[in-house]
Amino acid sequence: MEDEKKWVWQHKNYPNFPYNHVELDALLSEVSRNTGILEGTLNTLSSDSTTTIQIDAVTNEILASSEIEGEILSRDSVRSSVRKRLDETFDYSKDKSTHHTDGLVDVLIDSSFNHLPLTEERLHGWHNALFPTGYSGLHKIDVARYRSEEMSVVSGKGMKEKIHYEAPLPKSLENEMASFLKYINDSKDNPYIKSAIAHLWFVIMHPYDDGNGRIARAITNYVLSKELGFNHKYFSISAAVRDDKKTYYDTLEQTNKLLYNKSYDFTLWITWHTEMINNAINISLENIQCVVKKAKFWDRARNLKLNEKQTKVLNKLLDTGEGKFEGGLTNKKYRSLTGTTQVTASRHIKELVEKGLLHEIDGHGGRSTCYDISWSDTKIPN
Fold first, then answer.
1. Same domain, 330 and 262
2. Which residues are registered as beta bridge partners of 165?
3. 29 and 82 both lie in a single domain
4. Which range of residues forms the domain containing residue 278?
5. N or C: which end of the chain has fewer CB within 10 A?
6. CATH number for the domain including 27?
7. Which residues 6+ apart lie within 8 Å of 256 measured at CB?
8. Cβ pair 280, 240 in contact under 8 A
């Protein structure tokens, strides 16, 4: 009987994903408008600036997607892997990448830049890149092929064990994945709705032993990059999801359990997913403004005689963001970053202030004097 069924994939209308068009209209208009603003803004930037934005966005996407799954990666390793693929000026003598981060970058680059049809072979290739050793942690898994066993998402142990989700049986995966890929390649749905449905449908099927969440987000990247005509990826959806991870899992559970989704309606999920895309675009627009400010800053400082230690400290302050370097830059922190003496640090900081690149933060005089980046556009003396 219908009331004995627990999961949306057991519903008679699955795999159709009905939703309320009217409720989504305003949000879809907003995200479409912001996408246009992002694309227009990117068209005004130099190639160096767009490369920087790409590298930052792809790095953040990989770090955040792994963090959602409980894996904390080294930013330096990920960034090296990304720069090897996107930055022609990459210095291989300073390469900090690993085979693992190279594989994660390969998946994201392929999903975001390669607009050829999505195939089973390509998905298996992504899965192989995520688990090149054939292991997830200490456990051997099936790699580059669909799972052969039943799959449940469970938390807790013993009497406190809670089943959050049970996936379809393995015997159904071949046919269902064929339908899924046909939808991805042939559907004319609105790109934002299509990416939401694709993400959800893949998570519902849970076709692999592990890595389903990461591949679902890669599929989101693929759909948006292809359908919106972006030649490059400039925003990180996973970073927005990570910042609202609890709602991510709660929304999936409310959508996938018929106990909560009695009306078999997917407006809630599509709304949340589209809001995450919108948030990611807004974050990207803010980051672009930071990149532009950094470029203008170095334009002002281009002809100044700065030593390597001064440049390192300025880059650290710029990367951290205005007012975000905790407690401001002090003589002690300058010494910690550069390994100089107290006298040398004082001289370096004084020179940067005189050149208009740093300014004192009000209320921190004497020995506790603090400094931050100066964004003034006034002419700087040599």
1. no
2. 153
3. yes
4. 2-290
5. N
6. 1.10.3290.10
7. 7, 8, 165, 203, 204
8. yes
For helices 120-130 and 99-113, angle between their N-to-C axes, nearest 10 degrees? 150
pTM of the predicted structure, to 2 decimals: 0.85
CB–CB of 247/254 below 8 Å? Answer: no
Using CA atoms, how far apart are residues 73 and 101, in angstroms rounded to an integer? 8
pLDDT tens per residue across span 306-325: 999 999 999 999 888 777 78
Distance CA 285, CA 11 (A): 41
Can you tell me the distance from the alpha carbon of 159 to that of 171, in angstroms, rounded to the nearest whole number? 31
Q: Which residues contact 68 (CB under 8 A, 6 or more apart)?
A: 213, 238, 241, 242, 245, 248
Domain boundary pick from 245, 267, 290: 290
Kindly report, residue by residue over 316-375, the tens digit of the pLDDT.
Answer: 998 887 777 888 999 999 999 999 999 999 999 999 999 999 999 875 555 578 999 998
What are the backbone angles phi and psi of residue 18, rounded to the nearest 5°? Answer: -70, 150
C-alpha–C-alpha distance, residues 291 and 234, integer Å: 13
Query: Which two three-digit tokens encode residue 49?
Result: 């600036």
Helix, strand, or coil (residue 98) = coil
226 and 346 housed in the same domain: no
Q: Which amino acid is at 24?
A: L
Q: Which amino acid is at 151?
A: M
